[in-house]
Amino acid sequence: MSKKLVIFLVIFTLVFSVGCQNQNVTNKQISDSSNEIKYEVQNDGGAFSSKDIIYFIMTDRFYDKDKENNDFPDVNKDDPKAYHGGDLKGIIEKLDYIKSLGVTAIWITPVCKNQYGGYHGYWITDFYKVDPHLGTLSDLKELVQEAHKRNIKVILDYVVNHTGNKSPWLNDEKYKDWFHPKKNISNWNDQKQLEEGWIFGLPDLNQNNPEVKKYFIDNAIWWIEQTGIDGMRLDTVKHVPKDFWNEFAYNIKSKYPNFSLLGEVWNDNPRYLEQYHKIGIDSLTNYPLYNGLRKTFTRFGKANSLVNAIKMQSAFTNPELNGIFVDNHDNKRLITEAKEYGEAYLKQALTFIMTYPGIPIIYYGTEIAMEGGDDPDNRRDMEWDKIGNSEMLNYFKMLTHIRNSNEALYNGEFELLNYDSYFLSYMRKKGNSKFIVIYNLQNKEKNITINLKDDSSKYTDVLSSKTYNIENGNLNITMKPLEVIILTSN
């Protein structure tokens, strides 16, 4: 055998053996050409499923129970950009009200210590301390314990993208490599800019720095261990590299397999959102569906927007785990934006998220038809004086009762039925249980026909108890202006 051939065989053997060893580092580790997916992570929802309903609370604006933490200079109930006094004890005080809504979980805004004026929780200066405006770590532990007694799960809003601009790290040489250089985002379609730019002038953390990565993985696990929370809502997910989220999710799920991660990915493209599910985030805020919903259930709205959003849902692996919502703390409330007939459109929108596959997320106050314009007007104090005589609250409770009592509505098949620009219909079914939901989007009567060939069921409207028969394979209904009809074959 020639000397050159021997050398070649030796080199080939070494390369091959090293390659095999690398492939067997861990049975959880997988390869990906983009280097974004290093670990295979269980992303099936953890303790959460499509049966859940989440109630989203901005703690400072919900209920002021503890007056002793109101003596800070940045507490001013008359200033919409200041603290208003809501606290963790306030949420504890209102847990029975929350339970009465029929929801199964609460999501609360970040509790970490914030800089002056950070009532919302997103300007963090200390990631290991509870903000004293909101209470103490003991208060947070009590909230989780009291919620669990009522079978209510707790989701903590969690921030890794940035700090407040008064963070002590900014003046400490030790942390100089923890931040990206200050640079605004000029191209929102450039992923590198999204991940390294400073949004709203907030110092952007560099998660590619191993120290930063370790700090936040350890910090997240510390909050879970200390409080017993059931999940985290991850803020500004698309502004943080995917490989960080993959390792973050892997470390948390390795220790807490039932823990759930809900990611805020503010983008209209389901395929873009789905990338973050693949790396280990269980659920995503379904902005594509939200945008379709908001363009449909409003003055001059048309069904086509929502129908197109529904058709795009096939891009998701597990669409039923995504959060679907009407309002949140970043946008005008639907009832305000819809203007004329806002309450009727809000009823339609609430009906949709309660009868469509997904996990409904209800922003505090939406259940009582609270108004709210652009931030910070959409973050008004909870209007507790309305709950005693709120038609919307009664309607909302009826919806949650119907949903919670019928598996077809939270775990059934979905079928889009007939629609045009001004009406929409679809079916949910599980076994012999069937529901048909119909919307008239116009403020005038509308005659609609739904094709249901091979269906001889007799349907009853759960709202009015009126019965409908199928004639020649069609369901013919004259709908009232802006009416919602929920039919069941049960």
TrEMBL record:
The keyword Hydrolase applies. One of its GO terms (molecular function) is alpha-amylase activity. It catalyses: Endohydrolysis of (1->4)-alpha-D-glucosidic linkages in polysaccharides containing three or more (1->4)-alpha-linked D-glucose units. Keywords: Calcium, Carbohydrate metabolism, Glycosidase, Hydrolase, Metal-binding, Signal. PROSITE patterns: PROKAR_LIPOPROTEIN. It is an enzyme of class 3 (hydrolase). It comes from the Bacteria. Coiled coil: none annotated. Its cofactor is Ca(2+). InterPro entries: A-amylase-like, Alpha_amylase, GH, GH13_cat_dom, Glyco_hydro_b. GO terms for biological process: carbohydrate metabolic process. Residues 56-403 form the Glycosyl hydrolase family 13 catalytic domain. Residues 1-22 form the signal peptide. Gene3D superfamilies: Glycosidases (3.20.20.80), Golgi alpha-mannosidase II (2.60.40.1180). Its EC number is 3.2.1.1. Belongs to the glycosyl hydrolase 13 family. This is Alpha-amylase. The lineage of its organism: Bacteria, Bacillati, Bacillota, Tissierellia, Tissierellales.
